[in-house]
């Protein structure tokens, strides 16, 4: 019997964090479905107990984020045992024709801890998309729990999937997807979908109607602010060996442009609608390398921001793009605070080369000096626990972190995600099996290598910022905490408190959210 299609889509995000966040892809998927006449419902696991302290907790505890009074944390959290019954109830009540799930690798692994217990009706399509589908679609389909996966740009793919469901047609043959081949019973990859132009990708406003303030209340510089993630471009022109961005770009190699800036008009149309509803304080801009975009685009974006938005914003970029001319273009935005984050990753030349960073340590130092002189708030991203890395090399990174002295620092433990060049290095040497469950960047290492053990990396991560921020006379105390973390909690807390006292003395008393340090502008 032919199924009667009610055109209902349930979107689901197995969020591994113990807090809400605006997901970049969900509002896009929702808008596309609604534009195609579908009814949409959204559900996620943000407010269920995970049993694991999440990244925000650890970043506060380890001295990376200035502690705030806890108001940003959601207290109304349901027990983990409610995840399956709640999800089941939504499916039974809403009766979706399709369940669309988005996930990175961690999200997928978490999903597998409860999704097999959820009873999905035989005729409901389960679609999975997001980073994990890029390289692991065959494994995903082999679980028998997913009917179709999507890799690359969904803006082309989703309307085609929905149309096939409406017409009760089989889901095979859609570019940008994997399905199980009916004849062989094996996962089958279709060709990549044609790359879309900026106008096609952002030809509509994402749908944020599913979010309440729990999703955008965030700690920022010791305060609680309304922070919203905003996409202003997609793709990165660089090829670091620990990152998936090059894989996405290579997907479209020879077929068209993947590194692409969002049309300015569309960005501001979205911002104005967002401000009417949410009145955001800080925009966290998602663009892998903001200042690598064309100068004319940056100038127009910042000029309009200065006239129409005037709110604080955060960007990420690379050392080689943060030159005086581009930094001064940012000033056109009249933003109270502009935070610039750069991936530094390592203070050791061998490790930087292993990561294919093509970066010079003196230039990194000069770049942070320049950004500070010109009044920007800085964030520096470091990583540790790379394959072949030694303790001495991690200490080169600690020394660089001391001398860069960024306003905030994010230290992450390298995770060997599927398909990355550095993952192959670890696997080829037998330091991972490839079947491990991935911790977050703040939980621990899973690489069992001779140069530094996983346990040593995890212990050193917890005190990295103490080594980097405190005078060296405290290093023997820090080593005590490193060697026996559990039994030295009081000492740890004292050292963390001291870290913030020293930071206060080193920085100005000005409120970074309301005061912009005035710096002379060059000739832009
Ligand atoms: C921005 C970003 C973040 C932001 C997220 C901002 C936000 N509010 O969503 C922040 C900083 C919070 C973040 C956190 C993390 N991130 Co991150 N992040 C990125 C980044 C740079 C861009 C992702 C993005 O939003 N792109 C824009 C959206 C629109 O694109 P998209 O997600 O690819 O979705 C498209 C398609 O995949 C598809 N699609 C997506 N979902 C679905 C679902 C269905 C059903 C369908 C059909 C299609 C579909 O449609 C979308 C539109 O075309 C990527 C690198 C990259 N270039 O992808 C890393 C990346 C995704 N992050 C990564 C990781 C590991 C993390 C962390 C887990 C790190 C950690 N702390 O341990 C955390 C997650 C913490 C958590 N659980 O909340 C890894 C993932 C690796 C992997 N194999 O899983 C990446 C790839 C970076 C890397 N290391 O290479 N991240
Ligand atoms: S510059 Fe950043 S986004 Fe680009 S490849 Fe390197 S780590 Fe990934």
Rough outline: globular
The CATH homologous superfamily of the largest domain is called: tm_1862 like domain
- Structural class, judged by helices and strands? alpha/beta
Domain count: the total is: 2
Distance between the termini: 68 Å
What's the story with the biggest beta sheet? 7 strands, mixed
Number of strands: 16
Number of helices: 18
Q: Which residue ranges are poorly predicted, with pLDDT under 50 across at least 5 consecutive positions? A: 508-524
Going across the major beta sheet, what is the strand order? Answer: 2-1-3-4-5-6-7
Q: Give the distinct bound molecules.
A: cobalamin, iron/sulfur cluster
Radius of gyration: 23 Å
Helix content: 25-40%
Describe the structure.
- With 524 residues, the protein is of the alpha/beta class.
- It folds into two domains: 8-194, Rossmann fold, CATH 3.40.50.280; 212-450, pyruvate-formate lyase- activating enzyme, CATH 3.80.30.
- The protein has 18 helices and 16 strands.
- Strands 2-1-3-4-5-6-7 form a seven-stranded mixed sheet, with helices on both faces.
- Helix 4 (105-111) links the parallel strand 3 and strand 4 (125-129).
- The longest helix is centred in the C-terminal third of the chain and has 18 residues, at 489-506.
- The chain is globular and about 75 Å long.
- The termini are far apart.
- Residues 508-524 have low confidence and may be disordered.
- It binds cobalamin and iron/sulfur cluster.
- Iron/sulfur cluster binds at residues 236, 238-240, 243, 245-246, 288-289, 318, 343.
